[in-house]
Amino acid sequence: MEVASQALPRGGLWRAVTVILVMLGTNPYPFLRLLYAVDKWAGEHDEEVVVQAGHTGCNTDNIKCHDFVPHRQIEQWISEARIVVTQGGFGSIRDSLAAKKPTIAVPRMREFGECQDDQAELVDALAQEGKVIALYEVEMLDHAINGASDFVVPDAMASRIPEIVREAVCSALKVTGRG
Question: Ranges for the Glycosyl transferase family 28 C-terminal domain (predicted)?
């Protein structure tokens, strides 16, 4: 298990701290459904949770939130995380899989005012390939995190992500055929 090292306030001692990284993305719509579920989970568990909140904002009790951070910082947090919980956008998922981190992907849904276009198609395709754990009911976050603890991330080089993204874009644009 990978852990981040954190200095204790006194004596130069170090301790291992496991980290759950949550990426809500930079979509202009808030993703409160996931934020509140993560805050509740963090209040019930002794594990550090770091959230990249984007436009969602963050008025919570149990988690560390950062609205916007440089991509280099996101990559560092991913490398230090035990598990990544992310919205269903391509960039966030790609970064997590490239780092071979167990990834729980929660698609933003139009019906909840979280986006203009559902992220379910990409999340479903990647879950079917065994690359991510798809989570639709945020009330099941604890179960998903427990499952992610034993999740083996497949080789990213064998990924169909580019093809899946192309198919999703073509579907959204109602384009047919290859080209």
Answer: 19-129
Q: What residue spans define the domains of the chain? A: 4-173
Q: How is domain 4-173 classified at the architecture level of CATH?
A: 3-Layer(aba) Sandwich (3.40)
Residue 112 region, left (φ>0) first, then alpha (ψ -120 to 50), else beta?
A: alpha
Residue 82 phi, psi dihedral angles, 5° rounding: -80, -40
**This prediction's pTM:** 0.79
Task: Kindly list the distances between the CA atom of residue 163 and the CA atoms of 118, 125, 178, in Å, as whole numbers in the listed order.
Answer: 18, 10, 11
